[in-house]
Design goal:
Elements lengths: L6 E5 L4 H12 L3 E6 L2 H14 L4 E5 L5 H15 L4 E4 L14 H29 L2 E6 L12 H21 L4 E8 L5 H14 L3 H9 L11 H13 L8 E5 L7
Parallel strand pairs: 1-2, 1-4, 2-3, 4-5, 5-6, 6-7
Helix pairs in contact: 1-8, 3-4, 4-5, 6-7
The structure holds nicotinamide-adenine-dinucleotide (NAD).
Length: 260
């Protein structure tokens, strides 16, 4: 699948899944903006990609919950490269806590990063996509877009919410050539997951090994983590897919944890 001459913005691409997607897109011929809260890490990620694919990456400082920063970041990409063909709304965090101890501020922060971020970035890129009559928008959902787990009230709510946003934008935008889909990974070993292992062990009163084997991978078919490369391959497939046949969909990649 080829992305030659395509311009992509990937949020949260300084680390983990977003970084792997940015690398995969650059290898497929795209130019990729690494949009992240952590500018230094985004610059390092862009430098790494440019070393392999000269001129393929730029870093953009962006807090996805801040409308002005989102608009300025998208404008900077359009100024540099002319348009936007692909948005991957991927930036995210995780906060685990039982609901009675879940701070309201943490609830709002989670919904803001996952949902406001998806809304604001979509709103900023879509006029450019409409102008050219084409585009692909991907939201980073989760198995938690389909299933619930204890301690994750805000995350599960936000990830379910992305399905609604995706389907609505699909209905509005597909007639104008813009497709929207959601990728739903199972557990992928990134800093976001590494942070949760000791937190969940403490909350659930079990060992870290049990968190990994029972809580995270217990319902997979083979006890394996999904990898950043697995998710990058799916992100390439969705971005390069040639028609509106594939819009408003969500696809789970989780070693069989969720089959819904
Ligand atoms: P990660 O922690 O490795 O990377 C997240 C990136 O998002 C970081 O670079 C961080 O700086 C950035 N970020 C955080 N808040 C931001 C903000 N407000 N504005 C801009 N950037 C911000 O995490 P990851 O595991 O790669 O997660 C990426 C996405 O994948 C998230 O949406 C997450 O919910 C989703 N996801 C992860 C897993 C998993 O197991 N790792 C599973 C399913 C879904």
């Amino acid at each position: 699948m080829d992305l030659t001459n395509k311009i992509a913005i990937v949020t949260g691409a300084a680390s983990g899944i977003g970084l792997a997607i940015a690398k995969r897109y650059a290898a497929a011929g795209a130019k990729v903006a690494i949009a992240d809260l952590m500018l230094e890490a985004a610059e390092a990620a862009a430098a790494g990609i440019n070393a392999d694919h000269p001129g393929a990456a730029m870093a953009v400082a962006m807090n996805v919950t801040d409308e002005d920063q989102v608009n300025a970041g998208v404008a900077a990409v359009v100024a540099a490269w002319g348009s936007v063909d692909i948005l991957v709304s991927n930036a995210g965090i995780q906060i685990v806590n039982p609901i009675e101890a879940f701070a309201f501020a943490d609830w709002k922060k989670m919904l803001a990063i996952h949902l406001d971020g998806a809304f604001l970035t979509t709103k900023a890129v879509i006029p450019h996509m409409y102008k050219q009559g084409s585009g692909a928008i991907l939201y980073m959902g989760s198995v938690h877009s389909k299933e619930a787990s204890p301690l994750k009230s805000a995350y599960v709510t936000a990830k379910h919410g992305l399905l609604g946003l995706c389907r609505t934008v699909a209905k509005e935008a597909s007639p104008k050539g813009v497709r929207t889909n959601v990728i739903c990974p199972g557990f992928v070993r990134t800093p976001l997951v590494d942070k949760q292992i000791p937190e969940q062990a403490k909350e659930l009163g079990i060992s870290e090994d049990e968190v990994v084997k029972k809580v995270m991978l217990g319902q997979t078919v083979d006890g394996e983590f999904t990898t950043v490369e697995d998710i990058a391959e799916l992100a390439l497939f969705f971005a390069a897919f040639p028609s509106n046949a594939l819009t408003g969909q969500s696809l789970v990649a989780s070693h069989g944890w969720s089959m819904g």
